[in-house]
UniProtKB/TrEMBL annotation:
InterPro entries: SusD-like_2, TPR-like_helical_dom_sf. The keyword ATP-binding does not apply. Keywords: Lipoprotein, Signal. It holds the Pfam family SusD-like_2. It comes from the Bacteria. The keyword Signal applies. Residues 1-21 form the signal peptide. Transmembrane segments: none annotated. This is SusD/RagB family nutrient-binding outer membrane lipoprotein.
Amino acid sequence: MKTIKYTPFLLALGLVFGVGACTEDKLDEIDTNPNTPTDSPVQLLLPQVEVDAAFGISGTDLAWISSVFVEHTTGVHAQFENLDKRAVGSFTNNTTSNNWNDIYAGELVDLNLIIQKGSDGGSEAGAWRYVGIAKVLKAYTLGITTDLFGRIPYSEALQGDALLKPVYDKQQDIYTVIDDLLTDAIADLDKTSSKSPTNADLFYGGDAAKWKKVAYSLKARYYNHLSKRDPAGSADKALAAAAQGFASPADNFTFTKYTTAAIGQNPWYQEQNDRGHFAVSATFYSILQNGTPTVTADDDPRIPFLVDPVGRNASNPRVAAPNGTAIADQGGTTYSRISTNIVDATSAQPLMTYAELKFIEAEAQLRKGNATAAYDAYVAGVNADLNAKGGSTYTNSTSTNANVIAFRAKVFMGASNLTLRDIITQKYVAAFPYMSIESYNDYRRTGFPVLNNPKGPAPRRFPYPQSEIDTNGDNVPNVPLASGVWWDDGTED
């Protein structure tokens, strides 16, 4: 966090010349406006980093770009239309500068400050609840960053003027850091804390047990990302962590504090309401209609909850925008938009959910050859998502309605027929639209869902910002956007 020291110049001069006996320390004390502090306590820092984790890190450009690349949405205006159509110069080193600066000059700096202040020897030593939460959020932020960019600065980063050109650490090493942070966070959350965040914690009101479940659930997510590098080991570790993660949707890691005030609105709503860059993708909608793009079945009961009719007029049809070839439609008069059921000014924004955790468990069990356990976890994930999105009557329905029967046959196919594609497809539906980054990660790991943009495949990583190339060019990896990150294709650059 940037702090500002306010110095009334004329008043300072009067004190210097009029009180000759003042010591230098006393002058420093006088030269401080009590209404503009130069330091912030952890109680003020925590809500700031939590808002930024939801809004800035996982709620704006990084997620929006990922949603276009993984075809949750289709870009139908301005830069996102260009990204969708793979226009030359649409995805450059300038695209990610704001997010990178937010992560490195804002979020990680403030998280480190909370950890430093609340740990032994800090100015608020013993504030272990704050420290544990900050370590979870730091792991989450590093995970987002390395998953999108690959190698990132860490071991020499965040030192200010003392080290302006940090090296870029291998993603494999960053993943070790993430796991260590989450392990330490769990231990810190178990300690007796000198203060509890309560109202300062915008996610769980300072509930240490809830935050421990987030830490274990994130461990499962990041272990599972290593499915290509260590199939069996990653499955075992993911399952062990998942067993101590979210127990139900009531534990979801979800930001619920957006407001109707212009500066407090859900960022997806701000984008959809003010700029209109996105429509619902034809790829995503075809999966809802057909279960899989290649097999015909009847409609998914989540469609009315997720996709609005064109123009949000109930008398109009729902029309998805074809990826790569959609016409410009900023006004939303040609294609369907994401429903206001899930994108409105105060809509909750999930960062990780129980449904995702169950799909991780299903994938890990399938990788181990445990078909029944995989299917049980898969059904739990689908049901959690259905219950949240207007399809609860389909979960255990004995209806003779042809649509219900067709949907259940396609989605609840039985343990012997469950495939990785089924798991990732339903996880992809459950992630729409807020967790598109995770769907982008899944696509790069598994090849699912099957994407359809005729303009070609999406990049497999994000470009480093121009500011880094200009100031730290010797250390910035020179890597083509078509090359995967370490957990994707095994390369580092």
